[in-house]
Design goal:
By secondary structure, the protein is of the alpha/beta class. It has a single domain, classed as Carbamate kinase (3-Layer(aba) Sandwich). It has eight helices and eleven strands. The strands form two sheets. It has a nine-stranded mixed beta sheet with strand order 4-3-5-2-1-6-10-11-9, sandwiched between helices. Helix 1 links the parallel strand 1 and strand 2. Helix 1 crosses helix 3 and helix 5 packs parallel to helix 7.
């Protein structure tokens, strides 16, 4: 079976790495092991994989009025959280037998390479999974924006946004059982219907650079493989 996409950027939220709500551990290694096996399957098909992970399971930027921590300072704390998650995923991938590189937008040479676009692309060409940490390296930008930016820079064919739901709905399906799912939708329709696919900066980057997005349920085994081979899983956002 041939993959539909040659190079993908997988965007995961930090919360996706958490276990059950009863668990206080921000990183569930059984989930990382599951993700590693899913990613290994597509790497063995010849798909080049880059990953961007959020940091919300460890630290989420809080309201300055509530915490006393200014926004920029809090955003840098969040960037460090994404590096911790990146290291955890890197360990899981290598345990599953893959070659990886962790690149950070904030210099920390002991644990990660600095982000260098051409080096990242060379790693991908050699079959290594590249994990991008520390967001864009700048405050006031989300990891969604970092994912969109990195995907455009490395010339990825698509952004695969792994979430807890199986696509984009007309309303929150966890709150509204009558919400309908879209199999395919345009960027313009997402904006007109005010569907929160990504934050607007990230979404606009994808729209202006004609970079498709697939929103799908990453926690369902086999979904990642189905998306990569072109099966109708989740929701495809295109021009």
């Amino acid at each position: 079976m041939l993959p539909k996409y040659k190079r993908v950027l997988l965007k995961l939220s930090g919360e996706s790495l958490m276990g059950s709500k009863d668990s206080f551990d921000p990183i569930d290694h059984t989930i990382i092991a599951q993700y590693a096996q899913e990613i290994k399957q597509i790497v063995e098909m010849g798909v080049q994989v880059a990953i961007v992970i959020g940091g919300g399971n460890i630290y989420r930027g809080m309201n300055e009025a509530d915490t006393g921590i200014e926004r920029a300072h809090g955003d840098y704390m969040g960037m460090l959280a994404t590096v911790i998650n990146g290291m955890a995923v890197q360990s899981g991938l290598e345990k599953a037998g893959m070659y990886t590189r962790l690149q950070s937008a904030i210099k920390m040479e002991q644990i990660a390479e600095p982000y260098i676009r051409r080096r990242a692309m060379r790693h991908l060409e050699k079959g290594r999974v590249v994990i991008f940490g520390a967001g864009t390296g700048n405050p006031y930008f989300t990891t969604d924006t970092a994912g969109s930016l990195r995907a455009i820079e490395i010339k990825a064919d698509v952004i695969l946004k792994g979430t807890r739901v199986d696509g984009i709905y007309s309303a929150d399906p966890e709150k509204n059982p009558a919400a309908t799912k879209y199999d395919k939708i345009t960027f313009a329709e997402c904006i007109s219907k005010n569907l929160k696919v990504m934050d607007m900066t990230a979404f606009t980057l994808c729209m202006e650079n004609n970079l498709p997005i697939v929103v799908f349920d990453m926690n369902k085994p086999g979904n990642l493989m189905q998306v990569v081979t072109g099966d109708r899983v989740g929701t495809l956002v295109t021009q």
